[in-house]
Amino acid sequence: MAVKKIVAVTNCPAGIAHTYMVAEAISEKAKSLGYEVHVETQGASGVEDRLTPEQIKEADYVILALGKGMTDEDKARFNGKKVVELPVSDALKHIETLFDDIDDKAHVFETSGLKLGADQAAVKEGVMSYLMAGVSGALPFVIGGGLMLAIGSLMVQFGMANTALDAAKDIQPSLAWVVSQIGTLGFTFMIPIMGAYIAMAIGDKPAFAPAFIATYLANSPDLLGTETGAGFLGAIILGLSVGYFVKYFKKIRLGKNFQSVLGYLIIPFVTLLVFGLLTYYLIGPFSGWLMQALLTFLQNIPTSMKVIGGFVVGCMLAFDMGGPVNKAAWFFGFSLLSSHVYIWYGIVGVVTLMPPMAAAIACWIRPKLFTQQERAAAPSAMVVGMTVATEPAIPYALAAPVPMIAANVLSGGIAGALSILFNIERTAPGIGIFDPLLGLIHPWYAYYPVLAVGLILNVVFIIWFKSAWVKHEEKKQAQKAA
């Protein structure tokens, strides 16, 4: 009997945790069934283990576990193949049954239709999916820029000069100043890139350049004559508007003489003309006013309300561990970085570490509450959790959703409130627990105690809630047996 051959592609909005966890899960499950498997990951580092034309041609089935969709051009590789497409989070949850009745789940992909089956809308469509595509594009700019700014700041703190360039006085810049300026460029381009990737997620490549330029314009107060730039609100408005404009523009049929230049010449030019003028006269000033109003509100709300907001954001971050609620709270904090508002992203630096680390510690303290598989995964959950990837906590939550999610949410909310109370700021994404050492979290002396309190509470709640849950389940099983 011939060995069944599987190829798969995995991606997720941030391109960090789900992408690789699902790739590993698919690979291990397929191999356990005796299948030949090849998995392509589209993560933060780009495309790795790219599927070859031969692998795709020989494959019996294609699995697309997607969190941010794929371009039409990328999907075209699988024309005529039997394809199973599902959200990346579902692939992780249902990995044990993913290959059951796979022929019934699969649909033959036709390039002209650009539809892969019933799950297509769940993966590709949705505003949050588009926004997270924007975040995925902006992340490298913020991470690189944030680390450069941190290095520049450390150089000054260690006594190096911070001399700016002054060509008129023939003053050459110092190294620390140059490093900081390079880092600043990362934050300068963060928002235009976000707008461009949002647009491209909807309208594909022709939407990228118009959205980038229009969003850059909206964030240029000197050009617009506004008090402030449009910030992430401008990126959202322009990214979505340009994306949908291009999406429907592409449906126009101009005849074979002009159709070939539609995508790379006509659409980008017309879109830039329309949205360039709209941005200058309308969208830019309006978005700038809206952004200024939001920043003024966030700066002037009383501390008590900020603490309540911190509790809510912390609860959201801990609720579904990389799911839509988590991503909404994460996006809010991340998007404010370009406006130099760092306290809401400070909550992310605390709360997102807690669920996987707490699950691992609880495993070691009360191993009888967890299965052998969960105990074996504890070291990995601890290490990965320390680097701000909440997803390793998902298997623990799936096994006992009520106690685990309740423990995570309650402790996450408390930690979020404490983070606001102690004014913890995170200036850029980094590597989790080590961020204060890199100069990305301030004040460091408040960060670690708040994290420790949140982590201790999370572990206590897990043991407390899960012990009660296990007793309840045992009692229910005993009643059924009787």
TrEMBL record:
Name the residues that span the membrane. Answer: 130-155, 175-200, 230-249, 261-283, 342-365, 404-424, 445-465
Q: Does the keyword Transmembrane helix apply?
A: yes
In terms of one coarse class, where is the protein primarily found?
membrane
Per the UniProt entry, the signal peptide is none
Please give the Gene Ontology molecular function terms for this protein.
Answer: transferase activity
Protein's UniProt keywords contain Kinase: yes
Q: Which residues form the PTS EIIC type-2 domain?
A: 127-464
Q: Give all residue intervals belonging to the PTS EIIB type-2 domain.
A: 4-104
Q: Provide the top EC class.
A: transferase
E.C. designation(s): 2.7.1.202
In Swiss-Prot or TrEMBL terms, this protein is called PTS fructose-like transporter subunit IIBC
Q: Which UniProt keywords apply?
A: Cell membrane, Kinase, Membrane, Phosphoprotein, Phosphotransferase system, Sugar transport, Transferase, Transmembrane, Transmembrane helix, Transport
Q: Which PROSITE patterns match?
A: PTS_EIIB_TYPE_2, PTS_EIIC_TYPE_2
Where's it found, cell-wise? Cell inner membrane
**Organism expressing this protein natively:** Loigolactobacillus zhaoyuanensis
This protein's membrane topology, according to the annotation, is: Multi-pass membrane protein
